[in-house]
Model the fold of this input.
Amino acid sequence: MLVLLPPSEGKASSGRGAPLKLESLSLPGLTEAREAVLGELVELCAGDEGKAREVLGLSEGLRGEVGKNTELRTAGARPAGEIYTGVLYDALELSSLDTAAKRRAARQLLVFSGLWGAVGVADRIPSYRCSMGVKLPGLGALGAHWRTPMAAALPEAAGDGLVLDLRSSAYAAAWKPKGEVAGRTASVRVLHAPTRKVVSHFNKATKGRIVRSLLSAGIAPAGPSELVEALRDLGYVVEVAPPKGPGKAWTLDVLVDEIH
Done:
C-alpha cells in the first residue's frame, strides 16, 4: 500500500540536525527536479523580499518565511514526519506509533510538496515555505513542473498494491494515477454526515485518523474493495463510487458526525 498525503502550511522548526542531502531523499528520480526548485527558491528569497513574498503568496506577517527559505541548504534537517504539523498530522501522531507501525509509515507514506515533489515521512528535510500553487519566475507553475518526473517515479513507487490518495486538489494535480495504477487507487473524501459537505477540520483530522488506524492495525489492503472492508471493520461509515471506466480511480466517501 502507498498512501499519498498533502503537506501542511504550518511546519515545525528545522532544528539543529545535519543539513539537507537531496540525494538521500526517497524517489531519487526526482533529484534533478528538486534541485531546480530548490535553486530558484533560494535565489528568489535571497533577493527582493517583497517580490519573494508576492510569488510565495505570503503576508507581511510571514516575512520571516522568506528568510527561512534562504537557508534551506544549510539549515538543520529533521524527518518530514516531524516537520509537517497541522490537523492531519496531529491526528496521525506519528511519534506515538509503536515501532512496527513507524516502520510501516516509513515505507508506505509519501507527503507531496511544492518544493520536494514528494518525500517519505522518514526523509530528513529542513522547514520551508513553498506550496504547490506557487508559480516561480523561471520554472513556472510547480504543479506542471512536477508532472513529468512524477509520471516516471510514482508508478514504480506504487508497485502493484493499493494507492490510497488523501491529497488535496492542488497536490493531486502534480500526479494523477493512470491506467492500471488508477484502477487500484482509492481517493477519499470526508463528509460531514448531517450536511454531506466537506468541512476542512473534519476532512483533515479524519484522514489522519484513518492512516493511523491502518498503520496501527498492520492492515495493508490489496485494493480498493479490501480497503472499504477494512475501514468498515475499523468502525468507519463508508460509501463507495467504483470507477466509471477503465483507468479511473475509486472514490470513497467517509461520513462523520463530529470530531472529538
About this structure: The two ends are 28 Å apart (CA to CA). The chain is about 40% helix and 15% strand.
